[in-house]
Amino acid sequence: MRIRxxxxxxxxxxxxxxxxxPQQDPAVTAARLQAWAADPAGAAYVAxxxxxxxxxxxxxxxxxxxxxxxxxxxxxxxVSSQARRQGVGALLLEAAESFATTQGCLRLEVTxxxxxxxxxxxxxxxxxxxxxxxxxxxxxxLR
Length: 143
Known about the structure:
Elements: E1 2-5, H1 13-18, H2 26-38, E2 42-49, E3 52-63, E4 70-79, H3 88-102, E5 105-110, H4 117-125
Parallel strand pairs: 4-5
Antiparallel strand pairs: 1-2, 2-3, 3-4
């Protein structure tokens, strides 16, 4: 298995669907991957073995507003159901952390829906702490 930067030709639609985000058009997904590749503040990586995609992660760097420095946010992480519990997620997480570190980020954030308890366990086992006691997340759909 190897971890590499995602390319627009990577068929990640099925992985995103496993995460609960159905994709309507592979060409649109490919265009998003190209946009991520062109943005120096973002990175997307895939895990592959035997010409099969096993997982994908995307991370984005954000400058702090209230102080100097930057932080990063994992915006997507999914491992194929056939490849879970085999170290794929850990390697993808390591790639995102490495990217954030090379960008000078002071911290890395990830959010996870309340119903994804196995994901919570995974993040906590990799040193991430649940900050729900110190902050709340509020969303508003604009379109």
